[in-house]
Amino acid sequence: MTKILLINAGSSSLKWQLVEMPAERVIAGGQVERLNLPGTIVKVEVGDKKTKETVETLDEVTAVNRVLKRMVTVGAVKSLDEIEAVGHRVVAGGTVFKQPIKLTPSGISQLKELSELAPLHNPLEVKCIELLAQRLAGVPQYAVFDSSYFHALPEKTAIYGIPYEWTTNYQIRRYGEHGISHAYLAQQAAHQLGRPLGELNLITLHLGSGASITAVKDGKPFDTSMGLTPVTGLIMGTRSGDVDPSLVPYLMKRLELETPDVVLHELNASSGLLGVSGVSSDMRDLHEAAKENPRAQLALDMFVNQVVKLVGAYYTEIGGADALVFAGGIGEKDPEIRQAVIARLGVLGIQIDPQLNKAGQPGALQTKDSACQVLLIPTNEELAMARDVQHLMAVAQN
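-> structure tokens emitted (398 positions)
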């Protein structure tokens, strides 16, 4: 048996699991929520024992250090020496990395060069990789890429309406994000529906601080909301989502800027739900603030509207869907958002059972006469990553 530590560092949270492979037994796991925000929440689960504490603001480095310390104090391992491999979720592999890899110094350098494709993620993930290389010296580390899943997109949805030479010369295309999650959700939906994945049309909604929606046609990714970088698509916690590209030079002129760096940073780090509401990037804060704050309610309304718009577009693009799949921190835990989205999709005949939705248990949430199924499937990127790491380790031994 091999103990593998999985690190899933997102833009506002860090999820982790310690998994025993090939048995796929989760020894321990947890999540650090509200990274870089006041009142960071640290959750740890070992068997039936769950702990939750709210601490001062943690960044990704202090969060990783706390996770390593907690694994020992809660008895997940007697010492960190028991960890035999580490797997990292990495958002952007570009055209350089089309499959999972074992990390080397040159590989890490290449990841740094791809940071502009995922400015909120790749630098953070490289920090975690370098920190764990120090803390777990000699333990092999692996990278599993979100973008790998979307290399299968058909060209008509993968590229932009720009000179084709730009596409080929500079590898400009839709790379997507949350590919590990979307692939897992599609597989789990097929299992739950009891049908071969290749026969299914699905719309998978990974809704969290980072949010993306993917259309799956005949079991394969057909379109996805994120593009060259994760700033595009839906309005998100701190990311703007789709904007007119002319906005960048316009603001550079108005703000008297010499480079686009400031505007691009603001679109990634100060926009989205945070920028519109002026309150928070966290959906829980917005629900509370919306009772008295019109801008907080506006942010919620914009999020729901954009989800509805994309689902409607994808529904027609792939010729109807067998199921909509909700996942992610918002998709799994926010019944108000699910209800609001499905209510707007009633024009397509999609309906949700209010009691099932409020209960929020994994499984089917639709009414009996709904035009397609509505599934709540908790994503498990860590398990998908563990399987990839286990495969690479097995190949190296043979």
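Residues 294-317 form the longest helix (24 residues).
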